Automatic annotation (TrEMBL):
Statement: the UniProt record of this protein carries the keyword Glycosyltransferase: yes
Region named Disordered: 508-562
Name by which UniProt lists this protein: Alpha-1,4 glucan phosphorylase
Organism: Nicotiana tabacum (Common tobacco)
Gene Ontology BP terms: carbohydrate metabolic process
Length: 977
C-alpha cells in the first residue's frame, strides 16, 4: 500500500507537495497470448502539476485538490479496469503458475477458483489503493463500522458483478475449459458471522462503496467461525468450520499494521498524578484487509479484520527445550484462541473471559488504527477537538460497547486530554444501533470479571456512571424519592451498586437501634435472630459470582424457651455492568432498525433515557443490497425487471421497481414471471436432492423459513402447523386431500446455538417430522418437509429466488427488523407473518392484500402473557390435538415432553408458552388455508408476486446508508476522479 508525502488539511483543499505512487497495469494485452499481469509501483518526479476535481454526489459544493502527478499517471491510477476475455484468461493462467496454492500438473476447479479470484483481486487492489490514497489526501470525515459479524457470502460473483466483468470472466473461463458458475461454487462462505446482524453489516459495506461514502468496516478474523452444522438422526451436530483451510484469496495480511492489546494487570498513579495501566497479559492484533468493491464505481473500501498473536520473544524457548512444550506455547495459544470462534460458549468463567477479550480486541485495535489515521492525516497540526469532525464510529449492537471507555482511556491516559475534553469528544464520535428487545441480548457483564480483565476501563465506567447519576438527580431531583430511585435503578450503567456518596444522603433512612450485636424480631411464637457477625455462608457459582446458601441443619437455637431460627443471609445480587445503558449514555445517537422496533426502544427498552435525551433516538429501517439479492442471485428475474422497466437503473435506484405495478395484470409479464420462478425452483430441486437426498417437484409451492433457530422466531409454530396439516391429510381420502390442499415443499434452514438446548430440540423435531412425512407413500408429493443443513448466504442465494411463500412469524414485538423478509419480497415471494419488525413496513409497501397476516399484535402481548399467568388461557382444541399426536409417537420414539412442556403451564422458566405459540396457532392455520386458496389461482398469485417485488424499493440498504450518513455520521459521498 502506497503512502503519500503530504500533509492533509482540515478542508482537503490545498496544494499537496507530492503524490508519488502510481499503480499501473502492465502487459494486459489481448493480442499477446503469453502476456502476464503485473502490478508495479512507479514513482514520477517530473513535477507536472495536475488538478484532481472531486465529483460530489451530494448537493454540497465540490471539493478540489491539486496534485502534481502526470496526466498519464493519474489516468493509470484511476482508470477503470476493463480487460477483455483474452487478457483475463492470461491473468488467470499467470496466477495459476506464479501464485500457486495447488500442484502444477492439473488445472481443476479449486485451482481455477483461486487463480480467478486472484486475478479479480488485482483489479480490486488498484482501485483500493487509489481509494485509500485519495481519502488520505482529502482528509474528509470518514465513518467506521464496528461489528462482531460480517456475513459476506461468496465474494467472486459479487466482485466481478460489481466490476461489470461477469461476461468477460465467463468467456475467459470457458476458453480455459471451465464454467464460471462451477468455479464460483468452489468458494467457501467466509465464516465471519451467523445471522442477520452480520449480513446487514455486509450489505452496508456494499452500499457504502457503491454510493461512494468514505467508510471502513472493522471486525475479527475468526479461524473457525461459529460452526459447520451437520444434521444426523440425533438432530444438529456441530463441527469446526474449515473456510480458511485452503486460505482465502481475498485477504491481504498487513504485517506492518499491528497494535498492542493488554489484559489484566493493575492501575497505578504515577508521580505526575496520572493513572497508568501496567503489567498483565500483552498480545498484538494484526490487520487483514478485504477489499469491498462498489457497483459501477471505482470506489473500493476496506473491511479490516483483526487476528491475534504474540511476538516471537514471548515464546519460552527454555521451557520448550526442557520438555515443557505446552508451557512454552501458552502465551501464543492464549492470544490465538481469541479469534478462533465466533461467540464461544459462555457457560463457564473461561468462556465469558474469552468473549470479553474478543470484544475488547475489536474495540482497542480498531480505535488505535482510527486514531493513528487521524494523527497521520493531521501531521503536526493535531487538534483533538476536531476528532468528531473527522471520525464517526458506529457500534453495531452492544458488542463494541467497550469503544466508549477505550476511547476515553486513549485520550486521557495516552494523549493527555482532560476528562471533560475526552468525554465531549467521545460522545460526539460514537453512535449505537440497537438490534434487539430481548433482555438476554442487552449485554451485562460481571463487574468482578471486568475489573480483573480491564481494570482501567472499570474505573472509567465508574466515573461515567457517577456523572450519569448526578445528571439524573439534577433532572429528576424534584420527584419523590421512590420515583427517583426507580429512575436510577433503570438507568445506571452499574447494576446493584451503592449510590455515590455525593448523592447517597438523599436516600438515607433512619435506622432502628440495635442492642449489642443482635436484633430480635418476635413473630407469633418464633424469633428471628440476625447477628452482625454471622458467618458468610456464600459460595462461588460457575461464573465466579457470590451466591447465598441455606444455613446448615441444626442452626436453630433456643432463646428464652422460644422457638427461634437463624435467618438466611440476605441474597446479595451480583454487581453487573449494563453495556446497552453505557451505549446510550456514551453515544450521540441511538437507532432502532424498523419503525415498530424504534418505537419499542423509545417506549419500553430505553424509555427513561428517551425522556431524558429524546434528541438521541432515531429510526433507521434496515435494508439489503439489491446487487447481491436480486441482480446477481436471480438473473432470470433481473432480466425481466430490466425488460419491463426499460432500464438497468433499478439496480442503483430501486424506486424504479415500482414501475412494475402498472404491468402486474399483463399476461405476458405473468408468463415470463412464472417461467423465471420455475427455472429457479428447478435449480433448488437439484440442490435439495444433493444436500438432503429428498426429491421434490418444482410445481409444488415452496414454503420457506430460513433464519437462526430461536424460540421467538417460532419455527415451532411452523412445524406444528405442518403436523396439523399432515394429521388432517391422513384422515382424508386421496381425492379429498387433493381437493383440500395444494402440494407444498416446506423448507427450513438455520443454526441453533450450540448450547441452546431448546433450539436444538426444535431442529431435531423438524427433522423427525420430515423423515416421517417424506417417506409416507399416502402423502407423496403433496407434502414434503426438508431441513437444509449448514444454512448460509450461498444457500440463501439459491433458495430465496425459488421461494413462493416465506415465513416471518416471530412473536409480535420481539423481532427488531429482520432482513431476510426484505430479500424474499424483492424476489417476488409472498409472505405470511405477524405485525413484527420490518413486516409492518413491508406490508404497507406491497399492499395489505399481498401479505398474509395473522397473530396477536405487539401491544397485546403483555396482556396475553398476564392472562396466561392468571390461568385464564384456554388453548384451541386443534393445538391440543397436535400435541397429543406428537406425544403418541407418530414421529418416532424420541421423548418430546420437554419441548412440548415449554408450551404448557401458567408460569415458570421454560414453561407457560412465553412466545405465544398456542395463542397464535388457530390464527396461523386459518391463514395457511387462505394461502392454499390463493395459490390455486396462479394469475392472482403471480400478480401478488409481482407487486411484492414492485413494492420492495424502500428496503434497499442504499436508502438506509444515505439516512445513516445524513442523520448520524454527517459524511458526504465523494467520487474518485
Amino acid at each position: 500500500m502506497a503512502t503519500s508525502s503530504y500533509c492533509a488539511t482540515a478542508n482537503g483543499a490545498e496544494l499537496y507537495k507530492h503524490y508519488a505512487s502510481n499503480s499501473r497495469l502492465i502487459g494486459f494485452n489481448s493480442r499477446n497470448r503469453s502476456s502476464k499481469l503485473f502490478l508495479t509501483r512507479t514513482s514520477d518526479f517530473r513535477g507536472v502539476k495536475r488538478c484532481f476535481h472531486v465529483k460530489s454526489v451530494s448537493s454540497e459544493p465540490k471539493q478540489n485538490v491539486q496534485d502534481p502527478v502526470t496526466e498519464e499517471g493519474a489516468e493509470s491510477v484511476l482508470s477503470s479496469f476493463a480487460p477483455d476475455a483474452a487478457s483475463i484468461a492470461s491473468s488467470i493462467r499467470y496466477h495459476a503458475e506464479f501464485t500457486p496454492l495447488f500442484s502444477p500438473e492439473r488445472f481443476e476447479l479449486p485451482k481455477a477458483f483461486f487463480a480467478t479470484a486472484q486475478s479479480v483481486r488485482d483489479s480490486l487492489l488498484i482501485n483500493w489503493n487509489a481509494t485509500y490514497d485519495f481519502y488520505e489526501k482529502m482528509n474528509m470525515k470518514q465513518a467506521y463500522y464496528l461489528s462482531m459479524e460480517f456475513l459476506q457470502g461468496r465474494a467472486l460473483s459479487n466482485a466481478i458483478g460489481n466490476l461489470e466483468l461477469t461476461g468477460a470472466y465467463a468467456e475467459a473461463l470457458k476458453n480455459l475449459g471451465h464454467n464460471l458458475e462451477n468455479v464460483a461454487s468452489q468458494e467457501p462462505d467466509a465464516a465471519l458471522g451467523n445471522g442477520g446482524l452480520g449480513r446487514l453489516a455486509s450489505c452496508f459495506l456494499d452500499s457504502l462503496a457503491t454510493l461512494n461514502y468514505p467508510a471502513w468496516g472493522y471486525g475479527l478474523r475468526y479461524k473457525y467461525g461459529l460452526f459447520k452444522q451437520h444434521i444426523t438422526k440425533d438432530g444438529q451436530e456441530e463441527v469446526a468450520e474449515d473456510w480458511l483451510e485452503l486460505g482465502s484469496p481475498w485477504e491481504i495480511v498487513r504485517n506492518d499494521v499491528s497494535y498492542p492489546i493488554k489484559f489484566y494487570g493493575k492501575v497505578t498513579t504515577g508521580s505526575d498524578g496520572k493513572r497508568y495501566w501496567i503489567g498483565g497479559e500483552d498480545i498484538k492484533a494484526v490487520a487483514y484487509d478485504v477489499p469491498i468493491p462498489g457497483y459501477k464505481t471505482k470506489t473500493t473500501i476496506n473491511l479490516r479484520l483483526w487476528s491475534t498473536q504474540v511476538p516471537s520473544a514471548d515464546f519460552d524457548l527454555s521451557a520448550f527445550n526442557s520438555g515443557e512444550h505446552t508451557k512454552a506455547c501458552e502465551a501464543q495459544a492464549n492470544a490465538e484462541k481469541i479469534c478462533y470462534i465466533l461467540y464461544p460458549g459462555d457457560g463457564s468463567v473461561e468462556g465469558k473471559i474469552l468473549r470479553l477479550k474478543q470484544q475488547y480486541t475489536l474495540c482497542s485495535a480498531s480505535l488505535q488504527d482510527i486514531i493513528a489515521r487521524f494523527e497521520r492525516r493531521s501531521c503536526d497540526r493535531i487538534k483533538w477537538e476536531e476528532f468528531p469532525e473527522k471520525v464517526a464510529v458506529q457500534m453495531n449492537d452492544t458488542h463494541p460497547t467497550l469503544c466508549i471507555p477505550e476511547l476515553m482511556r486513549i485520550l486521557i491516559d495516552l494523549k493527555g486530554l482532560s476528562w471533560k475534553e475526552a468525554w465531549n469528544i467521545t460522545k460526539r464520535t460514537v453512535a449505537y444501533t440497537n438490534h434487539t428487545v430481548l433482555p438476554e441480548a442487552l449485554e451485562k457483564w460481571s463487574y468482578e470479571l471486568m475489573e480483573k480483565l480491564l481494570p482501567r476501563h472499570v474505573e472509567i465506567i465508574q466515573m461515567i456512571d457517577e456523572e450519569l447519576v448526578h445528571e439524573i438527580v439534577s433532572k429528576y431531583g424534584s420527584l419523590d424519592l421512590d420515583k427517583l430511585e426507580e429512575k436510577l435503578a433503570a438507568m445506571r450503567i452499574l447494576e446493584n451498586f451503592d449510590l455515590p456518596s455525593s448523592v447517597a444522603d438523599l436516600f438515607t433512612k433512619p435506622e432502628r437501634p440495635v442492642d449489642d450485636d443482635t436484633e430480635t424480631v418476635e413473630v407469633s411464637d418464633k424469633v428471628e435472630v440476625v447477628t452482625n457477625d454471622e458467618e458468610d455462608k456464600s459460595e462461588e457459582n460457575d461464573t465466579g459470582e457470590k451466591t447465598s446458601v441455606k444455613p446448615e441443619p441444626g442452626a436453630e437455637k433456643d432463646i428464652d424457651k422460644k422457638n427461634t431460627v437463624v435467618s438466611e443471609p440476605a441474597v446479595i445480587p451480583p454487581k453487573m455492568v449494563r453495556m446497552a445503558n453505557l451505549c446510550v449514555v456514551g453515544g450521540h445517537a441511538v437507532n432502532g432498525v424498523a419503525e415498530i422496533h424504534s418505537e419499542i426502544v423509545k417506549e419500553e427498552v430505553f424509555n427513561e433515557f428517551y425522556e431524558l435525551w429524546p434528541e438521541k433516538f432515531q429510526n433507521k429501517t434496515n435494508g439489503v443490497t439489491p446487487r447481491r439479492w436480486i441482480r446477481f442471485c436471480n438473473p432470470p428475474l433481473s432480466s425481466i425487471i430490466t425488460k419491463w422497466t426499460g432500464t438497468e437503473d433499478w439496480v442503483l435506484n430501486t424506486e424504479k421497481l415500482a414501475e412494475l405495478q402498472q404491468f402486474a395484470d399483463n399476461e405476458n409479464l405473468q408468463i415470463e414471471w412464472r417461467e423465471a420462478k420455475r427455472s429457479n425452483k428447478i435449480k433448488a430441486v437439484s440442490f435439495l436432492k444433493e444436500k438432503t437426498g429428498y426429491s421434490v417437484i418444482p410445481d409444488a409451492m415452496f414454503d420457506i423459513q430460513v433464519k437462526r433457530i430461536h424460540e421467538y422466531k417460532r419455527q415451532l409454530l411452523n412445524i406444528f402447523g405442518i403436523v396439523y396439516r399432515y394429521k388432517r391429510m391422513k384422515e382424508m381420502t386421496a381425492a379429498e386431500r387433493k381437493a383440500k390442499y395444494v402440494p407444498r415443499v416446506c423448507i427450513f434452514g438455520g443454526k441453533a446455538f450450540a448450547t441452546y438446548v431448546q433450539a436444538k430440540r426444535i431442529v431435531k423435531f423438524i427433522t423427525d417430522v420430515g423423515a416421517t412425512i417424506n417417506h409416507d407413500p399416502e402423502i407423496g408429493d403433496l407434502l414434503k418437509v426438508i431441513f437444509v443443513p449448514d444454512y448460509n448466504v450461498s444457500v440463501a442465494e439459491l433458495l430465496i429466488p425459488a421461494s413462493d411463500l416465506s415465513e416471518h412469524i416471530s412473536t409480535a414485538g420481539m423481532e427488531a427488523s429482520g432482513t431476510s423478509n426484505m430479500k424474499f419480497a424483492m424476489n417476488g415471494c409472498i409472505q405470511i407473518g405477524t405485525l413484527d419488525g420490518a413486516n409492518v413496513e413491508i406490508r404497507e409497501e406491497v399492499g395489505e392484500e399481498n401479505f398474509f397476516l395473522f397473530g396477536a399484535q405487539a401491544h397485546e402481548i403483555a396482556g396475553l402473557r398476564k392472562e396466561r399467568a392468571e390461568g385464564k388461557f384456554v388453548p384451541d382444541e386443534r393445538f391440543e390435538e397436535v400435541k397429543e399426536f406428537v406425544r403418541s409417537g407418530a414421529f418416532g420414539s424420541y421423548n418430546y415432553d420437554d419441548l412440548i412442556g415449554s408450551l404448557e403451564g401458567d408460569e415458570g422458566f421454560g414453561r407457560a408458552d412465553y412466545f405465544l405459540v398456542g395463542k397464535d396457532f388457530p390464527s396461523y392455520i386459518e391463514c395457511q388455508e387462505k394461502v392454499d386458496e390463493a395459490y390455486r389461482d396462479q394469475r392472482r398469485w403471480t400478480k401478488m408476486s409481482i407487486l411484492n417485488t414492485a413494492g420492495s424499493s424502500k428496503f434497499s440498504s442504499d436508502r438506509t446508508i444515505r439516512e445513516y450518513a445524513k442523520d448520524i455520521w454527517n459524511i458526504e459521498p465523494v467520487k474518485l476522479p
